[in-house]
Amino acid sequence: MVLPDFLIKRIPKQEHIKKVRALIDDCEIHTVCESAKCPNIGECFKKKSLTFMILGNICTRHCAFCGVKKGEPLLLDQNEPKRISEATMRLGLNYVVITSVTRDDLEDGGASQFVRVITELKRINPSIKIEVLIPDFMGNEEALRNILKANPYVLNHNVETIPRLYPLMRAEANYGRSLTLLSQAKAINRQVYTKSGFMVGLGETKEEIVSLLADLRGAGCDLVTIGQYLPPSKKHPKAVRYVEPDEFSEYKRIGENLGFKRVFSGPFVRSSFNASELASN
Ligand code: SF4
Question: How does pLDDT run across 50-63, given as a tens digit for each residue?
Fold first, then answer.
């Protein structure tokens, strides 16, 4: 399928990317921006915006759509929180997004490392806003509770796609478990915004997308992101269709009518794209 004009991005100036890349290397940290081969990397790095990826850069799961490395994960790194805070200070960030690979090999799925990073960032800047984009911790409620006790500003957990496509796209995940996590989060700490996100263009129908939005609202989700699936490489599944910008606008309207605080919907929207904007009142 030929890429339509609205999915063609200008190649970003390399100098911006190089500067942030140098800092990332210097601080020995990982970003999902690079690992998942995000199409917005030029724009975000230019604004010194990025999403830190903790718990290493090797995932224990094998989602078909994802560009992150899969396999034997790295040992847990106790210095990771300090390096994240150093990078945060050097980038001058007041809004930080932290995500991770999924670590089903760890008893708490790595939740305690999220808590260490949040605590360290709040130590260096008590007014910092932190968004955590977490895996499902295999439904471990105590792991979720510990993260919410650390008071992130936004608790984000992506459902990624409609339930019918889970066996194909994310077989080790569970749609019901992800919805339960989002509703538990809202029940445990109402002060924390909950957020989720999904891709379209994988073969879902409009009805299935609207039903997914309703499920997320039913789980008390405040914020949602909707973006076009773009294969990170030729080895990944092809997009079934390219969703037109008008259709994204329609989902934005439907989402707002369903009561989401903010809906970010567009071809290049990703779960932490312009995250600080999405959470601003
Ligand atoms: S769990 Fe997340 S990082 Fe791991 S393969 Fe799936 S989408 Fe990628």
Answer: 999 999 999 999 99
